[in-house]
Amino acid sequence: MTYESDLLRLLEERGYIHQVTDPGALDQLAAKQVVPGYIGFDATAPSLHVGSLVQIMMLRRLQQAGHKPIVVMGGGTTKIGDPSGKDESRQMLTPELIDENIASIRKVFEKLLTFGDGPTDAVMVNNDEWLSALGYVELLRDVGPHFTINRMMTFDSVKLRLDREQPLTFIEFNYMILQAYDFVELARRYDCRLQMGGSDQWGNIVNGMELGRRMEGRDLFGLTTPLLTTADGAKMGKTAAGAVWLNEEQLPAYDFWQYWRNSDDRDVGRFLRLFTDLPLDEIAQLEALEGAAINDAKIVLANEVTALVRGHDAAKAAEATAQETFAGGGAGEDLPTISVSASGMRLGQVLTEIGFTTSNKEAKRKIAEGAVKINDEVILDPGFVVIAHADETLKLSLGKKKHGLVTR
Asked: In this structure, are residues 208 and 186 in contact, taking their beta carbons and an 8 Å threshold?
């Protein structure tokens, strides 16, 4: 359909929209007034990873279109754990660790959103404020009647566990109730009208809308993004070396930059629309590049995303390191680094500990394939011991894209 509001036009043009509840009514509302909208993030680690970046960018688009982003940190729901997409229960975190994680995660949001007291300024709230204040009997009496076990059993987050005969605890079973109640409380406090999220959250979002209508008589809306995977079907934000974290403390800027530089050719245009602020006509020109020229578009992608998430200086330093490593044959100081003792370390162990391989078995296979180099010299001996003398730095390479440093 053709949208009148800047918000839905922007989201559609950039490829964020998968499902919308009553798109016509939401479009009319967004065309005539500021719409506060929220996305929730649990604080299970000190950083979110790239898989959450599309949600953060949705809040950025909301603000760019003249509306109010509400970042809901799940200080309360993190104590329970979202069962969506999980085969087993999450480890319980202490309240102190959850607070530390929230403080760390906030640093990324502050780079991508403008916070303040204005009508379109972003706010960050912690759902522990209201969830921990709810009495259990009060929750059962006021919220419980609006949910049926029959309906809750149809949710994918529940069916997945039960179909695989994995245990689903009673506390996790209640997660969807608390998430729905978040929408009600945000509607009361901030006149929040819109909840956004990934396509796997559709059922939970609809739950919240229905609860708001029944408890408050409010017309609320939901919008989800498509399931985000790379062109080869991999889950966004996961690599063989682990999660691609947004915070600098969890992942160096060069590794973050390199993740985007290594994007599949088929993903470049889509990623530029989702994760950068570049104009659409410029993106169209970049994604039309063919052959080796598409690498120029990947460098633009890496620079733009790194500048947004880590800052312009980090993006420039990462690109300079890449140029020195790939073009000049050098070893930029921003590369991942591992230290070995005076007696050295077996090459396979070095590859695994620096994160280039997931196991020593994989490392041995890569060595046998001739994919591993030290100071640009191929090493074929699986028993090779890497020794770095005092004040010496060795360049370690796996294939053409993974480079690191070995020091004493």
From this structure: no
* Beta strands across the sheet bearing 337-339: 337-339, 402-407, 393-398, 372-374, 377-378
Residue 237 has pLDDT above 90, yes or no: no
pLDDT of residue 85: 47
Q: Classify the C-alpha dihedral 225-230-233-236 as positive or negative.
A: negative
| Contact criterion met (CB below 8 Å) for 254 and 336 | yes
From the number of C-beta atoms within 10 Å of its C-beta (0-12, 13-18, 19+), residue 136 rates as exposed
For residue 136, what are the β-bridge partners? none
Give the whole-angstrom CA distance, residue 222 versus residue 37.
9
Q: Give the span between the Cα atoms of 112 and 29, in whole angstroms.
A: 25
Q: What is the pLDDT of residue 91?
A: 66
Q: Count the Cβ atoms, other than its own, within 10 Å of residue 342.
A: 9
DSSP state of 327: I
Least confident of 3-7, 129-133, 272-276, 397-401: 397-401
CA angle (201 as vertex; 138, 30 as ends), nearest 5: 90
189-207 per-position pLDDT tens digit: 999 999 999 998 888 899 8
First-to-last C-alpha distance (Å) of the chain: 62
Average pLDDT, the chain: 87
Q: Which residues have C-beta within 8 Å of that of residue 55, sequence separation ≥ 6? A: 39, 41, 196, 197, 198, 225
Six-digit token string for 143: 């919220």
- Cβ contacts of 288 within 8 Å, gap of 6 or more: none
CB 148 within 8 A of CB 210: no
| More confident of the two residues 306 and 233 | 306
What is the Cα–Cα distance from 83 to 87, expressed in whole angstroms? Answer: 8
Pairing of strands 345-346, 385-386: antiparallel
Give the DSSP H or E segment for 20.
Answer: strand 19-20
Dihedral sign, Cα of residue 162, residue 168, residue 170, residue 171: negative
Name the token pair of 81. Answer: 């754990």
SS3 (DSSP) at 230: coil
